[in-house]
Amino acid sequence: MSTLQSSTHAPLDVRQAGQVTRAAFVGTALEWYDYFLFGTAAALVFDRLIFTSLNATAAALAALATFGVGFLARPLGAALFGYVGDRYGRRPALLITIMAIGIATGLVGFLPTYHAIGLAAPVALAILRLIQGLAVGGEWGGAMTIAVEHAPPGKRAWYAALVQIGSPVGTLFSSGAFALVLLLPGEQFDAWGWRLPFLAAFPLLGLALYLRLKLEESPVFAELLEDEERVKVPVVEVFRRTGGRLMVAVMCAFLAVGGFYMMTTFAIGYGTGVLGLDRGLMVNATLIASGVQIFATLIAGKLAMAWGPALTVFLGGATTALATFPIFWLLESKAPAAVVAAIVLGIVLMTIGYAGTGSALADLFPANLRYTGVSLGYNLAGALSGFMPLLSLAVLKAAGNHSWAPALVLVGISAITAAGGLIARRIGPFTVTESTYTEK
Description:
Distance between the termini: 18 Å
Order of helices and strands: HHHHHHHHHHHHHHHHHHH
Number of strands: 0
């Protein structure tokens, strides 16, 4: 199990830990709502309304490339907000990130189409995506860090998994929002319907801010302030002192980001654009999978607490790799029940590893580098794997629309995470002497 040591600055209690976890959870849910919403729109809307000067294949590639651009900004956001979080506090960093995510996503709902403003439309979309990516770069790592640092000893893997439920809840809301607006006639959907899920980010932001403003600072960070153990430039120290562990963190998080978007963003585009499946079926399949994922996360969180988060990361990667080709065969059958089963199976298997990822990454870094280390590990994985939907579409076209090509991409992603879990389990949680970086 996770073995991060407790702070001696203030006692930790379950009530306070629960309040912090809820605030972290809501922010994570908004993060995934916004990110999945963008990914769905990239597959169903942006290629037709924002990139319409291109042919169909080029427009689809451009839309997915814009989706991937946000991932490139995430490591920069991890470094920026890691600096704020490790130098000035977890709480102020998390307030800034949640505001930027919500505002950038809501503004997409006001974005004019290509027919209205020409090339300015895709440029504006890319800028909003970059802002979103920067903020997301500091959101997940900060939410995970503050939840773990408030959690009672022996239960950190469980509380980290509770924060991860924000992923299926956010996906559930975004899938549900798109499923509803897809019921509109095509002309109304293209004219204004697709904008409604993005505009809904504003009231969701209000709820997230309400909970975040009540958030108490991490007692671990309070002790760092008292003992003057903060470092001047955390990102430099992460690479210098814990560079090897950072690589392991990237490997552990690879499937959590890249694999998820393979089973959502790419699968929706592949199902509708290549297999000719109804887009409502593909969105509803993701909706069902997200509901199942909530329960899978709870079960996997219990396993992470009992077996250790690194082992569950390995199991998630290994089982996903083994199931990849059957998943694509189910999609190719085009039978609605089989299509739903494929999406559910893929997402549930990834969830086994995803539920343990937060705690596994937190174990890899000391307290005074944790916000930066966790954020960098997760978001470097995002930067590397965020273009997997684009790569998968490219190799699919190169292979003559044969599914074995993108299936091999997913197998590779899964294998990297499985290896990361094994290495993390072998090297164990972070421990150092008093003369370097010490956790109290």
